[in-house]
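pasting for ref
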Amino acid sequence: MSYQWGVSGPGFEYPTCYRTENRFLTLRAALLIVLALVVFWVALAEPDPATSSVAILTTPLQRGGSTPHVLVATLLLLLGAFDLWCAARQRRVFLQPGQPASLTSELVHQAKGASPGAAWLTQVLASGKVDPGELRGPYRGLLQSLTPRLAAAPVSVQAYLSERLAHLLFGIGLALALALTWLLIKSPPTLALACLLYAALAAALVAHSAWIAKAAPSPLAVVVALVLAATVGLLLGWFAGQLPHIGKLAQLGLPLATTVLLACLLAIEGLAFLAGRATPDLPLAGKPPLAEAQGDIGADPEHLMQEVERELHRYWSDGIPNRRHAWQTSLADADGQAQAGASRFVATVLEETQPMLPADLRDGIPGPVGARRVCLLLLQVLGLLLTLAGGVLFVRLADAHVQDLKAAWTSGASALVLVVAGGYAIRVGHLLWSRVEVESSLLSLGCKAESVQPSKLRLRWSVVRARSVFYLAGQTVAGSRTLLQLSADELAARRSVQQVQAYAERQTATEVARPPVSSFAPARPTVAPAEVRSPTRYCPACGTPVLPRARFCQHCGEQQQR
């Protein structure tokens, strides 16, 4: 795993999680290129004189032009090149700025206070379980009944299943509208026009929700679109018979192509929905062992918090600052009005280190397993079969049309639908292939003094190793990464407490070692007293050693606390 520094911060490179998808993309690209070459050969090859003379003697035929088929072959070549480009892009996976997203809302770096989600994260660390909460967004009632554990999944999976369900419902509605139109309209040209409307609406809705809005349409939008589609389709079937040149639509096989389109849409979206709901990530349900290290430190509160911040800097992952969720300190007024035994100083800190790949995943990220993998593989195989079927229809159409100009174009629309549906089947599961597990450390510490003039500060430090999951191709928002496992690291917590104690004792020893100035001591003008060097200071923002009396860091410009 490597990283690159730029204006947007470090961009980590992960081993690709799209190996299986890349293989099928490459296979489809090779298949499209082969089919394109075959169409080129059929369209541009000269007729065989031995067979053409017989054909002319029996039934004189007029050869068709090759231009439409050359355009089709060029389209197949472009689709194959696009698949190769997608596979090449996915050979290297870089994290975008902000990925992986935080478990909850966080503070700006070096800010003080508590984020809105700090209380929730503290409760998770104390109880060891995550309450799934309630589903939000459209279709939540139907999704909850179909997938009861979906509320614990990342929001990317929830949005993915909402989109699949919306497409399924819309496809079923269009199929019913098509069946009704087929029963009520007997004129082939007007039926073809109504089917063209249904096919255009299906393609437009899928394209809008998948690539433009990137969200599922609302139930109201689906219902309105279905009502308008059925109404306009029936009106076209009844009143569009007088349109000029409408009879040519009957030669394109649009009813068959629309039927194929809706059947492919239902099959693809159904498999994608099954893949999304299969084996969801289970929420935390157990309490981890609480491992908390404690220690008494003799230092003033301000100096102690500086040492704590320096120790937190040691947890930075590859130079990336921790994600701060809480940094709260309270110091009572030293006016003697505090009650006896009341805490004079209280501090709470909660941070999370940058999530990184576990050591066992740095050589390769495993793909989905179980039922999800089976459904995704079925989608990939279905995409190849649909592409092959569409390409074979294009080859047969080119051969028939080149031999006879009057050959029917009925299978042309169906062939185009099959090729496009094949590409959609391979890419519809892209989000589910991008599942990645990462590890981070949740650092929780508290400090308080129980006396008015404390000589010791009680420091409590706990380190919890968290394993979480997110989807690289999903949204980068709060909730897009969920916890899978928590385990306490008592050794790291004890080591941090000892390190802070050592820092404080070293500072105290340095201050005590300063010799007192005596008024009766003889002056030594020739020998200057040895200057006691103050301890090395580190910039809390970047960790660079700064000069003893510097007000700003010479590396990043951050103002220093004096």
